[in-house]
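Notes continue from the previous slide.

Worked example: a multi-chain complex. Inputs as given:
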Amino acid sequence: MNHIAAIRTTAPLSLGSQPIARTARTAVHRMLTPFSVAYLTAALVTDLAYWRTAEIMWERFSVWLIAGGLIMTAFVAVAAVIDLAFRKHRANWTRVLCFAIAVLLSLLNVLVHSRDGYTAVVPTGVTLSVIAVVLMAFTFSTGWALTYPAHGAR
Amino acid sequence: MTCVLKSAHITKSRVAAVIAAVAALGLTGCDDTGGDPRRQIGANPVLPAVQQYLVPPIQIARPEPWGHDTPKVPDGFKVQALATGLEHPRSLYVLPNGDVLVIESNGPKAPVFRPKDIITGWVQWFAGAKAPDANQITLLRDTNGDSVPEVRTVFLDHLNSPFGVALVGHDLYVANTDAILRYPYEDGQTTITAPGTKLTDLPGGPIDHHWTKSLVASPDGSKLYVGVGSNSNITENGLQAEYERAAIWEVDRATGAHRIYASGVRNPTGLQWEPETGKLWAIANERDEIGPDLVPDYLTSVQDGGFYGWPYSYYGQHLDPRVKPQRPDLVAKAIVPDYALSSHVAPLGLAMYRGNELGKYRSGAFVGEHGSWDRSPLNGYKVVFVPFSGGKPSGPAEDVVTGFLDANNRTHGRPVGLAVDRTGALLIADDVGNRVWRVSSAHPASASKPAS
């Protein structure tokens, strides 16, 4: 992460067109947030497939996708803390709260999906998947970052 | 865990609304403690409503060596170790000359389909259920009945998760997890080196969730009956994986052809003939994860062509919401089992008994209850006796052999397969203590006959 940041800070110097301060505004964690959204959205798709077919393969896809999504959200959280602590970013609390609720519900959802049989998905699991995806869509509808630069434009 | 989630007081109104919505979705449920098991013993068990969990209750009894301890038996009985230092003994079989076969076996490695399967593997390892097994049969010969075998040999080796054994004439049948093999046996033989001949394949891997194949021969020796457990808790591996499983097979001994004798029995782990009526009886392990008091494991007569509910329903017509699509046509004819043993006791050994050598236990069924891992308080971990009269259970189950669990919920051993030896003593395989226990009358009414 720091390596990438280092490249970014040096690259504009050679171009000589952008001020160095501009690059510090870009949050590192925003590179990761799309992955968590993609995992959870894919899980919703496989949940719907299971709902329509009762084919157990889709349920297994779902539980791994949600688990993968949760791992990605953990990476997002770590990177966001780095942005806040070391890169002088401030939290966008609306987005952070929505994101946190979506993560919490997905945590419940991975447990629901660990049930045996149909009720691993229908009705509770697929409902939680819908809510998580809607919350994620709302969170990131106007940008991928959970923070914004301290002195920059919002 | 669910209770913690339910009772968490969160002040943010938006969060509270979400939590309320979650609660409304049926995520919560707080009654995690099992009731009195005695309410679920007998013909009419009390069946509570189905619960669904975020984290199913798990209570594991950590293993602790027996040391100088032994199981507890009622006054007038004594218990001795017939053998120690075995490797995961699961079932027992007594040959006509009195030799005892100890089947040392464990299940094949379970595949990982979901993150949950990794956790389950840890839980089983913690409970000592992942102990290495010998995949062999050990022979014990105790000719004078003093519980000190004069002969201990490896009877049969290189088996594949064996469980059931049955002798018909000079043909010894061993039910591996994936096939029934036939071996030639001569009276008094202590080791079999001849290769086995396959009689028929049985449903085995790659999943093989319930791997034990119980076995009993018909009295006339023409058929073998095989208990084939389901390939899942409740169809989570797909219905295709359940083909000819959760059933009791009837195998023709001459041709190896089979038909489904009874179905809908989730895991029939012990098959025996009731001596008075000559009917086939079975013990069965019922489904998990819908509550500490669901579903009671049972002891039942097995009717030809009978359907006992799994997976669609339990105890007759009680539907399981986890199974879709449902089969109302099958549920309509689901038979209510004869006798509930209470929930999650995990009956894995059955010995029908009729005799005078065990004091007050004269006619009935001994059941070895391996014990629960998904219920609090723990249930099972003992051998019980279900009295029979007129070929049917006639009263509440009595505890016969206890003390497998100590006061701190540590387990010294877990009873599995049972057998009655030639002297009428009860034998118990203990797959955590790695022993075979022999329970006999402390004051034999008629001196046990010395071996010829």
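Summary box: The first strand of chain B starts at residue 41 and ends at 42. The two ends of chain B are 61 Å apart (CA to CA).
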